[in-house]
Design goal:
The chain has eight helices and four strands, in the order βαβαββαααααα. Strand 3 and strand 4 form a beta hairpin. 50% of the residues lie in helices and 6% in strands. A four-stranded mixed sheet has the order 2-1-3-4, with helices on one face. It binds glutathione. The site of glutathione has 13 residues, from helix 1 and helix 3. The site of glutathione (GSH) has 13 residues, from helix 1 and helix 3.
Length: 222
């Protein structure tokens, strides 16, 4: 099997971090060009034109980070990252989706509607031009502020995002917060519990080892 990805893309990091937590090694192929566009060969190969995408040895393509997690979680249930009881599974799923919709997509609205390399690429996964909409930048910022408030309240009461255990809800939330850092948006002072949780997670091997190492043009990061 092979995992197609972009090293610096937060959605790809969601899968990388998960695999490190599980101790699973998968061959990876970087499919970005220096212009931050998916390689033509990959676009022809995968109709949905987004990374991450896991291709199995029989050619089956699994897109969407969430679906890739489900695939591995079924095959490798230990350590559980998506819950074991009905309630844990529900709570992890709810908080992971809140992190994705309210955090990842909100930051994405800011990035995709402002970055010069993404002109006419306001959304991923389209060949036809999708114009940038500058009004979505401010809307994204409003949503990011709401994300920090909501997650601060949750982390005031919980060690991890969805309760007592590290889970995929933490994985997506870390990727969201670090996407904010890449956009020069720090954790606000009004969110000290998010900061406490973020600082504690820095000791985790998966958090460190899943970080991007290079930019689309190949230049090294950090
Ligand atoms: N819903 C997808 C989102 C994937 C996504 O947005 N991927 C971005 C990179 S983070 C992408 O493929 N962008 C391609 C492009 O901009 O052309 C998931 O959760 O995996």
């Amino acid at each position: 099997m092979k995992l197609y990805e972009w090293d610096f893309a937060p959605n790809c990091r969601r899968v990388r971090m998960y695999l490190i937590e599980k101790g699973i090694e998968v061959e990876r192929e970087e499919c970005i060009t220096p212009d931050i566009i998916l390689k033509e060969g990959f676009r022809d190969q995968y109709v949905h034109e987004m990374v991450p995408m896991l291709e199995l040895d029989d050619g089956t393509q699994i897109g969407e980070g969430l679906a890739i997690w489900h695939y591995f979680e079924t095959l490798h249930p230990e350590p559980p990252l998506m819950g074991t009881t009905a309630l844990e599974k529900a709570m992890i799923s709810a908080w992971e989706r809140r992190a994705y919709d309210g955090g990842m997509v909100a930051h994405g609205e800011i990035l995709r509607n402002s970055h010069p390399a993404l002109v006419d690429r306001g959304l991923p996964g389209y060949r036809e031009p999708i114009p940038q909409i500058p009004d979505l930048i401010d809307r994204g910022k409003t949503r990011v502020a709401s994300f920090h408030k909501k997650f601060n309240d949750q982390l005031a009461e919980n060690k991890f995002v969805a309760g007592d255990h590290f889970s995929v809800a933490d994985i997506t939330t870390i990727c969201v917060v670090d996407m904010g850092h890449a956009l020069e948006m720090q954790i606000p002072e009004s969110a000290p519990h998010v900061k406490r949780w973020y600082d504690e997670l820095q000791e985790r091997e998966s958090v460190q080892k899943s970080k991007a190492t290079h930019m689309p043009d190949g230049s090294q990061l950090g």
